[in-house]
């Protein structure tokens, strides 16, 4: 039997609906609109599209969107100064630095300039530590979105074997931490893992975040497994060989319409939380 779809669009819309209601109540009670600042350096077409999409979603739930666009020649020092200004602005509740930045920018330094209380994208070392130790920090948005999607479908994680393919600081590593916190037994696979297929074949839960089209083959998937495809490649193709994997998995995310909408919903949810904490 083909896998059931983990419908990220539907679940994200439900989350956005709740956010819209909460924002309306907040504003009606005299509170300020939760405000998300999106910072973009340069004019990368994909980054322009992503930030525009995030601003539109922000405004669709009644939040305020603050657009900060800087020229490609902006220096690290200039970017740090801009982020510091946003960090000191009481009217800004969340700061998103669109990445990747141009190569001359010290991206880690720029991330670390974001105050942890406003790090609604979950990219700072402070947020990562809070997440790893369960101290109430903000999740990295894509892993956080995947976890929310799995919970929405009541899929059990405790005691399950989970494999995360990819070890990036904003996806693979935090994903492993969140699964571990849910009592899964977690393996991280990466470019030096000798036999990724063997690890995946043992997994009850697979999260693919490698950035290579259809890297995960359908016959790698354990029958009855849950598959979350966090990849997005040219031609609307994920990191998983979807059709073949869906013949073996019990649940699988579509691409598009799976992980992507959940990432944005999580970003806005965390922006609302930041505003409430600041109230």
UniProtKB/TrEMBL annotation:
Domain Tetrahydrofolate dehydrogenase/cyclohydrolase NAD(P)-binding residue range list: 140-277
Binding site for NADP(+): 166-168
One of the Pfam families matching this protein, by short name: THF_DHG_CYH_C
Keyword hit for Hydrolase: yes
Top-level lineage group: Bacteria
Pathway the protein takes part in: One-carbon metabolism; tetrahydrofolate interconversion
Keyword Amino-acid biosynthesis: yes
Any Gene Ontology biological process: L-histidine biosynthetic process
Domain Tetrahydrofolate dehydrogenase/cyclohydrolase catalytic: 6-121
Keywords: Amino-acid biosynthesis, Histidine biosynthesis, Hydrolase, Methionine biosynthesis, Multifunctional enzyme, NADP, One-carbon metabolism, Oxidoreductase, Purine biosynthesis
MF annotations from Gene Ontology: methenyltetrahydrofolate cyclohydrolase activity; methylenetetrahydrofolate dehydrogenase (NADP+) activity
EC number: 1.5.1.5, 3.5.4.9
Gene Ontology CC: one annotated term: cytosol
Catalytic activity: (6R)-5,10-methenyltetrahydrofolate + H2O = (6R)-10-formyltetrahydrofolate + H(+); (6R)-5,10-methylene-5,6,7,8-tetrahydrofolate + NADP(+) = (6R)-5,10-methenyltetrahydrofolate + NADPH
Quaternary assembly: Homodimer.
Known function: Catalyzes the oxidation of 5,10-methylenetetrahydrofolate to 5,10-methenyltetrahydrofolate and then the hydrolysis of 5,10-methenyltetrahydrofolate to 10-formyltetrahydrofolate.
HAMAP family: THF_DHG_CYH
Family according to the record: Belongs to the tetrahydrofolate dehydrogenase/cyclohydrolase family.
Name of the protein described by the UniProt record: Bifunctional protein FolD
Gene from which the chain derives: folD
């Amino acid at each position: 039997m083909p896998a059931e779809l983990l419908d990220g669009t539907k679940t994200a819309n439900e989350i956005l609906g709740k956010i819209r209601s909460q924002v309306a109540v907040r504003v009606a009670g005299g509170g300020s609109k939760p405000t998300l600042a999106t910072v973009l350096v340069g004019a990368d077409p994909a980054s322009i599209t992503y930030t525009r999409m995030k601003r539109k979603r922000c405004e669709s739930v009644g939040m305020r969107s603050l657009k900060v666009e800087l020229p490609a020649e902006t220096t690290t020092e200039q970017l740090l100064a801009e982020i510091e200004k946003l960090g000191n602005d009481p009217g800004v509740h969340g700061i998103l630095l669109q990445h990747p930045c141009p190569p001359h920018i010290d991206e880690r330094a720029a991330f670390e300039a974001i105050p942890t209380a406003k790090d609604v994208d979950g990219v700072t070392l402070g947020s990562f530590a809070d997440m790893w130790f369960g101290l109430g920090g903000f999740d990295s948005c894509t892993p956080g979105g995947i976890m929310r999607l799995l919970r929405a479908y009541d899929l059990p994680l405790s005691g399950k074997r989970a494999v995360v393919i990819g070890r990036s600081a904003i996806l693979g590593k935090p994903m492993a931490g969140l699964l571990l916190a849910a009592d899964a037994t977690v393996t991280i696979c990466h470019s030096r893992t000798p036999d990724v297929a063997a690890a995946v074949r043992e997994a009850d839960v697979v999260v693919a975040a490698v950035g290579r089209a259809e890297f995960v083959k359908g016959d790698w998937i354990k029958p009855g497994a849950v598959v979350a495809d966090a990849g997005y490649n040219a031609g609307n193709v994920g990191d998983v060989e979807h059709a073949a994997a869906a013949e073996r998995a019990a649940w699988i995310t579509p691409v598009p319409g799976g992980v992507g909408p959940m990432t944005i919903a999580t970003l806005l949810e965390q922006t609302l939380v930041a505003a409430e904490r600041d109230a």
